[in-house]
Amino acid sequence: MSKTIVNIIDQSNPMPAYLFTKEYYEEGDELLFISTEEEAECIKLLSSQLEVDEKLVKSIIVKRYQDNLLYERICRTIKGNLIPNKQYYLNLAGGNRYMTLSVQHVFEEFDTLFFYTQTRENQIVKTIFDNSIYDDDDEVFPIKHRMTLKEYFGLYGLQSDMDQPRKMVKDVAFSQHLFTMFSQNLLGQGDYKVMELLREKYRNWKFLIVSQVEKPEKDYMTAIPNLGKFLDFIGFEPERKGSLQSYEIEYLTGGWFEEYVYSLIKEVLQPDDIAMGVHISNGKIKHNNELDVCFIKANKLFVIECKTGVTSESLFNEIVYKVCALKEVLLGSGNSYIFSLKKDSKGTWKKTAKYMGITFCDWLNLTKPENLKHILKEMNRIAKEA
Question: In degrees rounded to 5, what are phi and psi of residue 187?
Fold first, then answer.
């Protein structure tokens, strides 16, 4: 027997409606969305992401009366669109409390099973509203569906280049080798100077010839006399001998750290989906935002900004504000982190980041096994998955 799956639209948090439908939808079922006028456009986005035949999608739009949502008018609007002898699966997670109260009241008169989708706990509670509160007849079901990054971005109306994922430049062992050199202070001031000049002067070049950069003949080029020695010292072998391609320049100036973090997360946490260097946009802001490392585990999104070093407080604040903008404007309830090899001995930057809802992991967190284990264990706890 087919049923109708009912969700209350919450444009700021479409996840409960999406996951509830993913868990209970069966072929032939209908979808019913209840929404206020100002949030109705989210129905089309949700229907598209769920890939359900639009003929099976219905909606009830609640209108305001003299700029107010009134309980009795909400109830009459909903009741007038329901069908007796039809079974409804109602998800009460969504909308404001006033709307939820109205919806629950109306559906109690119909053949309805009541549910509440708890995305934070990754579970759905089935509840029976009756006169008894002592028979413990509530049931809890784990959410089985596991979202991909592309699903998550699409659900929030974000455009991404997930179909063209960035590939690893070097194998995991080499990124670990560079991590050791950086974290154990095995690089000299001259080495840092080479990387600084590469980043500032050649980051956007498609390619460069090492010998020409060491002794440039063009006025627009900046000399890096020890570039070849630096590459030999760290053991970096370019794909084309004697030159560096754009992706290799990016790797040497910080991309290696992204690959290190990416490999670490992939091995230890085993996320459902993970990517690095993902570009996203909400279609309204022209700026194209890049996520250094992002992954999803048990339907929770994690975004990590990777910085090998942070030279000043002002630069750190810029990074924090960037991450905060991604968290609040583009990514809904995503969990945000900054991984850096900077030593925050006084804990000042950790406090600043925490105040903005961001976790800052410095040199001590990343190089001490017990500290790193704690960070990763906490991520697993947030994901609600052992």
Answer: -100, 145
